[in-house]
Amino acid sequence: MQPELQQWISITGRLLGTLFYFEPNSEQAQKVLSFFNQNDWAEQLGVEPSAKINQLLASQTDLAEQHQAMFIGPNTLIAPPWGSVYLDPESVIFGNSLLELRAFLRQHQIEFSLNLAYDEPEDHIGLMLLLSAYLAENNPELLNTFLSKHFFTWSKRYLQLASEQTEYPFYQGLALLTQQVLQVWQEQLLLIVPNVTFYR
């Protein structure tokens, strides 16, 4: 992998993953939000500028409420952020695909922890993006397998659903941007993603 691509995957994975995973008022998310509030963030990030995505990412009114509705509840989550919901026949969290991911992490002795107080399944969209960044930095030889077998198998389905959530414009924009970024990852890494059945 070229160092420039390795660095770009690390940067984009960390920025996007932080916004999907952390609550908007957290210190981690606030730092990233300040980056996206710059007029030239797309140029700095090296992505194709999009007026629609710019407008949606600027929709930060009631951002905590948007995050609550997208990731926590209490209403049913239209776009659940966990991979096993899409890949497991019973659409449950902590499904078989998560167990396979955990086996992959154990096999390669990857200890990835954000030292958080709550126990989130590792196949959360935000954690998967952060883990992609971690692998790009620390275990780049494992990145292609991780992406093709454990992440890209379901990420497009999740991002499709999330990008349709017009009631939550910031996260709709975040999903659209992530679609664009992950497409470049796949093209640059020449990844072949197996076809799977979605159960949601």
Task: Describe what this molecule looks like in 3D.
The protein is mostly helical and 200 residues long. The chain has one domain: TorD-like (Orthogonal Bundle), CATH 1.10.3480. It contains ten helices and no strands. Helix 1 packs across helix 2, helix 4 crosses helix 10 and helix 8 packs antiparallel against helix 9 (143-162). The chain is globular and about 40 Å long. The model has no long low-confidence stretch (mean pLDDT 94).
Which CATH first-tier class would you pick?
A: Mainly Alpha
First-residue to last-residue Cα separation: 34 Å
Overall 3D shape: globular
CATH architecture: Orthogonal Bundle
β-strand amount = under 5%
Helix count? 10
The CATH homologous superfamily is named TorD-like
Q: How many domains in all? A: 1
Structural class: mainly alpha
Question: What is the makeup of the main sheet?
Answer: none
- Average pLDDT confidence is 94
Low-confidence stretches: none
Q: Can you count the beta strands?
A: 0
Topology as H/E string?
A: HHHHHHHHHH
Keywords: Chaperone
Protein name: Tat proofreading chaperone DmsD
Topology readout:
Layout: H1 3-21, H2 27-36, H3 41-45, H4 51-57, H5 63-71, H6 83-87, H7 96-107, H8 125-138, H9 143-162, H10 169-189
Helix pairs in contact: 1-2, 1-8, 1-10, 4-10, 8-9, 9-10
Protein name: Tat proofreading chaperone DmsD
Keywords: Chaperone
Pfam family, one: Nitrate_red_del
